């Protein structure tokens, strides 16, 4: 019974019933040619309409079935047209309704049935193919886990995934879906994160690693503490964002909607004038059918849905159609260095002692004590090395005052400890002989980031860290250029020497170093004033002003960041740099398909109108060609669901997503 109800309420039930009635009508009319007794002449119809008097014909049983076919498919169309009219919207359904009703009145029963049948078939095909273009969203929903194994009262229990409690320990066995976002507390395993990041290579997980709901264990056994459940998981946020994005209108789509608002009434006026001038009602009704802007109306949304769906399948979240269109125009890309061009996992490389009475451990101890309360990514390698060498800070860190673009100032046991660049020393009035600046320059020339350490009013040394360049950074820059980006710019708060070393290795076009957050904003604004459409790629912390000002804000490694998923114009869920040029290339292909679809729709209407006035194009033929153009438009958009050749090349080196997330949270 459920299957029968599902079929009756489906898209194909009405066209199928109508098609059967049309076939029966043709069969009866064929039989009527040789059997006059099948012909009936009901007086009620002859009195009610002018058809029989005008055509000199009688009403047949075959005609009754043809009218029934038109009513079956036309009823829903008329209802939709009336509802639209109550909302002061004149749409395509009204054109078809008027044409079909007019055809019945003048006795063109076949035309009425054909027009409504073809329109219903086209509508069903549109619905089916639009469902296919939303396949990425369907796939995301399908990977959502149904159940979870939790440890309660000292034993394993299987519960629905939605009933897992925050902080509970969840067991993830080989082959199972991860039911929650969480942190691995024990065990090791390999997790397939393709549903989140688009990367097919499983990522090794151990204690401290992050896992995401909807990913799949490919080996090992993990105990995971739940940190995100239900609607708070990364997967749920992705599904919500893709759902919203696919329903968001692009600027071109909004224009088409406004265009249809006056185009449809114009077609009705044209049909009325043509019928009155020529005296041919059929001509007017045919023009109504021919002028239907169905292909034009669907040309944009189907491309947007397919483009955003294709992107989501590859771990690229695009906020909506407007941002997809803007991304296609990107001509300049501004990149933050740390965590974007580099891995975001710097290592301590040098400890240079400049105070005669101190040693390496002393400089490292003061530097680590100052950095203990800092959230800056460069603090971690200093603290890790100090802990490893037994001079790490103990207890609660002292008061820390970040100085944007310069460093930090800390109060430790009554001492003022500074760690940063020469401008920081100048701000606090620390006098030095220039040796620290010279050492810093030498280290920077080697591609390292130096930080001068001072206690009270004396410089004690320089520590330096180096962040390894991503293996695919130079390939990303090359692909951006091939995707049509004219200028790739690096924005960093690091020194010019370090930035130049990175720039030479990657092929960056323009370098801006030693920048404060407001300086990055100024560079983005300047690029916009020069006529560039700018995409800013960063981590959303120091780069927040520039990300907000850029035409497109791009968040890297956003899988672990709820804020990035919700606020970024484009969120790259994994840490694969090559998805950035892929996103731009996909946007350009989507806009190209949108333009092709508009051209197909307009050319079809023009040719059909020409055919009507030239003769030979009937109402049914016009609707057939019209629905054909709708299918061509949809098929053209569905090409976006296929990967372009080489679009998703994998990085040369796989970086742990968990490490990227830890950097994002740092």
From TrEMBL:
CDD domains from the xrefs? P-type_ATPase_HM (cd02079)
Q: What is its main location?
A: membrane
Record key words, sorted: ATP-binding, Cell membrane, Membrane, Metal-binding, Nucleotide-binding, Translocase, Transmembrane, Transmembrane helix
| Limits of the P-type ATPase A domain | 144-243
InterPro entries associated with the record: ATPase_P-typ_cyto_dom_N, ATPase_P-typ_P_site, ATPase_P-typ_TM_dom_sf, ATPase_P-typ_transduc_dom_A_sf, ATPase_P-type_domA, Cation_Transport_ATPase_IB, HAD-like_sf, HAD_sf
Regarding the membrane, this protein is recorded as: Multi-pass membrane protein
**SUPFAM superfamilies annotated for this entry?**
Calcium ATPase, transduction domain A, Calcium ATPase, transmembrane domain M, HAD-like
State where the protein is found. Cell membrane
Q: Does the keyword DNA-binding apply?
A: no
Q: Which family does it belong to?
A: Belongs to the cation transport ATPase (P-type) (TC 3.A.3) family. Type IB subfamily.
Put simply, this protein is called Cadmium-translocating P-type ATPase
Annotated source species: Microbacterium pullorum
The beginning of the lineage is: Bacteria, Bacillati, Actinomycetota, Actinomycetes, Micrococcales
